Amino acid sequence: MKRTLCSLLVFFFASPLCDANESSGTPNFVFIQGEGQGWASTSVQLDPNEPESKSRSFSTPNLERLAREGIRFSNYYAPSPRCTPSRATYFTGLSPARLRMTFTGAGGDTGKALIEPRVVSELPQDVTTIAELLKTAGYANAHFGKWHVGKVDPQVHGFDESDGATSNGGPENSRNPNPKQAYGMTERGISFIKRNVAARKPFYLQLSHYGGRSQDDAKPETFDKTLRLGLGRDERNIGAAAVAFDMDITIGMLLETLDELNIADNTYVIYTADHGTPGRNGPLQGGKGGLWDGGIRIPLFIRGPLAKAGSHSTALVTGADLVPTVADLAGISERLSDQVEGGSLRQVLADPASGKVARSRDGIVFHFPHYDKDPLGPVSAILSGQYKLVRIYEDQRYLLFDLARDPRERNDLSGSHVDKVRELSAQLTSYLDSIDAGMPARRSGETPSSNAGRDANSRPAAIMHRLDENNDGQLTKDEIERLPALLRSFDKNNDGTLSRDETRER
Prior knowledge:
Layout: H1 2-13, E1 28-34, H2 61-69, E2 71-73, E3 76-77, H3 83-92, H4 96-99, H5 130-135, E4 140-145, E5 161-162, H6 182-198, E6 203-208, H7 220-229, H8 238-260, E7 267-273, H9 293-296, E8 300-303, E9 311-313, E10 317-318, H10 322-329, H11 346-350, E11 364-368, E12 379-384, E13 387-392, E14 397-402, H12 418-434, H13 460-467, H14 477-480, H15 485-488, H16 500-503
Parallel strand pairs: 1-6, 1-7, 2-9, 3-10, 4-5, 4-6
Antiparallel strand pairs: 2-8, 7-8, 11-12, 12-13, 13-14
């Protein structure tokens, strides 16, 4: 009834000369996702205080335009260092850990020291997507490009139009003249926009680019231009620079379309990626497949009615914030699921310098209980304020970094900031427990944990049990030698031993 009434009011009061949905103030949304793009993989200097947050190898003039006309975020984090988990969060607002979509593979026993938890490979149909949410407000929704969250068609998840349940491979990744579908998906998106503007219907368009780093993944003329401009040399990958150039050209096509249709002032354009690049990520350590900042700290640009042009935000933002933001700007926040963990960026858009993101829980958690490209193996991490705590499951270690002073993550503070480690570790464990997260397990006859952070192997009491060789209920100095500084902090009376009472959960 509410939808019907709103539609009638818009129809009745809208002048034939008005722009699409301008009379109702209902904004449109264009959400563009790059693939594997690092913090310093654009020609925009994301952080005004860090020259290396701008690439010398890539030219992205249309992203520069987005930065001039909107907000650039220097502390934005992807939900995961892998594409499927991040996309699942972008589509739903739920964390990869809550969805059990923490990896691109199946998980399980890979023959390593820890047995990985099993992974959900299909986006659950009982979870509400952003398209389904916006549909209740009368939006038309489309997804073109890489889907990569299962084999079920996007239209089952609320998208009116799509390219189907695409992944990395297959015929959709055609070569020239449409390499990696960059131009084809953009043209389909432009057609979708024009049809809905003509129908005076608000729209949500999602364009998800495929990855590519070779000469064949770019148009020949783009590759030749990249050579002439000397791009890609620092990266030793001219192909990657050409692919980035091609994608940037398609972003320009979209921006020009919004201008031509006179709807730019009522359309939010959001650009980000799914994770960091497997190559160089500027000054940041690590890359795709790990929870170092190089794998998860990436570009974010937002242009739109509320976004202050030419501004920069240092607010801590994550992928789980995007669905709540779109819902808020569309006026339907009350329809969000209670399980959506992010917060709206409305205050940040209006006041980039001091606006805050209100979330239901302190700290932002990343859960990656898998073996991948990072030698640390299965890990979890939590960001809170300027601190980042990393839990390494294989050897039960913690790493603590002050990202404000040490963005390159070179100085581990876990030994000197024991109270902060304990505080953040408790928050991390509490979150994983609360969502029944899948956890890695050891090979002592255990099976992969199927419940809440209930991997007892990561708890002090369980570690004590394994190291207490004479089973006398105490750890001597000799037995405790292998424990990290964190465990020593549990010795409340400093007598050189740990009792069961001292290792009991607090």
